[in-house]
Amino acid sequence: MPGLKSIALNGLVGMSVVSAIAVQKPIYHPDLDVDVPYPPYPDVNLLPLVETEALQDKITGNKLLRRAKHLFNIAKRSEAEYGRPTRVIGSVGHASTIAYIYASLQSFKHYYKISSQPFNAVNGKVYESRLVLDNDVAESASPMGLTPPTKDKQPVYGNLIAVANNGCDAEDYPKEVSGNIAFIKRGDCAFSTKSELAGKAGAVAAVVYNYESGPVAGTLGTPVPNHIATFGLSGSDAQKYLEQLADGETIPATAYIDSVVDIVETLNVIAQTRGGDQDNCVMLGGHSDSVEAGPGINDDGSGTLSLIEVAVALTNFKVNNCVRFAWWSAEEEGLLGSDHYIDTLSAEENKKIRLFMDYDMLASPNFAYQVYDARDNVNPVGSQALRDLYVDWYTEHGLNYTFIPFDGRSDYDGFIRHGIPAGGIATGAEGIKTASEADAFGGEAGVPYDVCYHSLCDNIQNVNVTAWEINTKLVAHSVAKYAVSFEGFPERTLNNNINLAVDNKNSYEKTTKHHGSKLFI
């Protein structure tokens, strides 16, 4: 196998943005030229039809762990630039991850059409920050994702000025905000809107405080001209300042953020079976990138590698319906890769995707078997059937499960918004395992499912191989079931799809607060 570095470089050469899967540009590699005939391969049609138990039998924990070790070594390629192993977009570690995905599939080009989808992603870094309110450092304060820096990347000073209502209208910002620091309640509109309106009102910085006691780990999303340096603040920390302001007191404040927001060229990787009904596709995906803070072996190396293992195993079988695997880029920046993919699909291409299954974090060390609670009354019809597929499989294998909110935290979000039924499983992130969950799944109550979530220690010691193997077998089951037949699964039509995309968007957004790992509202 050629070196990963050379594959990565060749794989990223000469790509341009595309608008739909039908015109995606194949990944270039000297050993792969889609414009010339392929060498002779066994006739895929002579393979046995995929069967769930047979496909599951090809999944082992040892294979997954072996791939995890490769992925960690790939993340270490970024140490010279970042001072730590990472697979964040724009890093050598992420470019090499993309190359590794391709290299794992290159022997199966007779079975899969492998293509890339380049796009420009917004990436932000915060180097240093500080918020001082009434001479006290606000410990819970954290810069919003994709926040611009304070002016000249220097501290700015002013008084803390309360904004009316939730700061969603220009009229909510009193003239006193100009030259001072806006104090805005979370809710009713996106953090982006609040930052933009505060900037238009002349504020030098903004602080969005929570209506709940906890902190606000939010993002401003795509930059707009009037965004200003913006912090999130916990509701418990905000309370005393709200009381002081209500009593007419003046609160001096200092805000400082040294940050940069830039554009990174990156790409999604798509592998679709050549066999099967090309107008009725089973689609599944996971994200290929990590946060900058660490190597991301569980988040989402586990999903990335599970998809590779299932894709390789599937080549031993033929399928009735096409199967499309996706490795999304820039999920950690706000689901940018999956959003770009779904936003650029034509209506006809959208219709070909019968369902989408999201696999993000399948191996958390203090795991719970989590199923997204996707219901048809607020999601495209068919989402609940996916939920029930996972529930039935866990039940049949004598395993407990728990439902988690279907709230926009991963790459299924864009599919739901565009009328495509979706679902998925996970094993937990920063949330705390309850006593009842410890009884059901083992592990330790009162401790996060993944204590190394978004941290340097998300390495090969941070995966529960038992949970990972079990969940990857479930991934295989989900592929095998629908690769054979969509019997009983709701049909998709263009008219129905349009109605779903519009009608469900309103219902969905009422319960959706996340866009990726960060809050946006």
Range of strand content: 15-25%
Strand count: 17
State the CATH topology of the largest domain.
Aminopeptidase
Largest sheet data = 15 strands, mixed
Residue-averaged pLDDT: 89
CATH H-tier superfamily of the largest domain: Zn peptidases
Helix content: 25-40%
- C-alpha termini separation: 46 Å
How large, in whole angstroms, is the Cα Rg?
A: 24 Å
Question: Count of helices?
Answer: 15
Concise synopsis of the structure shown:
By secondary structure, this protein is α/β, with parallel strands linked by helices. It is built from 15 helices and 17 strands. It folds into 2 domains: 40-111 and 274-519, Zn peptidases (Aminopeptidase, 3-Layer(aba) Sandwich); 123-262, Glucose Oxidase, domain 1.
Task: Describe what you observe in this structure.
- It is a single chain.
- The protein has 15 helices and 17 strands.
- The chain is of the alpha/beta class and 521 residues long.
- The protein folds into 2 domains: 318 residues, Zn peptidases (Aminopeptidase), CATH 3.40.630.10; 140 residues, Glucose Oxidase, domain 1 (3-Layer(bba) Sandwich).
- The strands form 2 sheets. The chain has a 15-stranded mixed beta sheet that branches.
- It is elongated.
- It starts with a helix and ends with a strand.
- It comes from Podospora fimiseda.
- This is Peptide hydrolase.
